[in-house]
Amino acid sequence: MASPTPLLAFETAIDRWEGKWQDDPNDGGNYAHGHDGSTRLVGTMRGVTPDVYADYLGVDPATVTADDMQEKVTLEFAAKIAVDKFYVGPKFHLLTWSPLVAIAMDIGWGSGPARAIRMVQELIGAGVDGGIGPQTAAMFGHYLEAHDIAEACDRLTQARSDFYISISQPGSKNAKFRGGWLNRAKWYLSTNATPCWWDAWRDWTLPAPVGTSRPDA
């Protein structure tokens, strides 16, 4: 069974974890920030914020409306935005495509790509600067060669969970989101009982270097 593509990985996560429409005024992602400095509550459709939606279309966030987003942001469209803004944009495509990258993309979707990249860099022992360049890409490849992929995914998931706990202490404005955030993080554990997310990746193997062939198992 072939591993999911970045588009399918995003479609699966968005369909599983994002509702359709929500406009909670306590969620900062629901606000549109116009080029004129204005801030306006709009809402989020399938996890796509008005600012991300506007950036993808190349328009001023001040022009985005709730009706427009609810009509146009289908699951497929949301996943296309995600690939453009949270996979290619942050340069995750420079890393060897693997379940570890799929998890990092989902972290970036909710907490920002720079946060996700820093978590990956901490995991692999690269310089932590929140950006992906040749050094991070090379070290990522070496890390995959030297570590069990399931264990690596579980370690990144633990780092993600620890971050969510740190920003959702009781009494904080994020406290009400903790349960949902942790459930989403734990969905990526390789140890979950089947059927689970990991099932689609069980046959994943590290690609052979360009110009070489990998012998059959």
What does this structure look like?
The chain is mainly alpha-helical and 217 residues long. The chain has two domains: 1-89, no CATH class; 90-205, Chitosanase, subunit A, domain 1 (Up-down Bundle). Helix content is 49%, strand content 5%. The chain has helices at 6-17, 50-57, 66-72, 75-88, 99-111, 113-124, 134-146, 149-166, 178-186; strands spanning 21-22, 31-33, 39-41, 44-45. The protein has a two-stranded antiparallel ribbon with strand order 1-4. Helix 5 packs across helix 6 (113-124), helix 5 (99-111) runs parallel beside helix 8 (149-166) and helix 8 runs antiparallel to helix 9 (178-186). Mean pLDDT is 94; it is low at 210-217.
- CATH architectural type of the largest domain: Up-down Bundle
User: Beta fraction of the residues?
Assistant: under 5%
Which structural class matches the secondary elements?
Answer: mainly alpha
Tally of helical runs: 9
Question: Biggest sheet: strands, sense, closure?
Answer: 2 strands, antiparallel
Number of domains: 2
Low-confidence stretches: 210-217
CATH fold-level assignment of the largest domain: Chitosanase, subunit A, domain 1
- Radius of gyration computed on alpha carbons: 18 Å
> What is the name of the CATH class of the largest domain?
Mainly Alpha
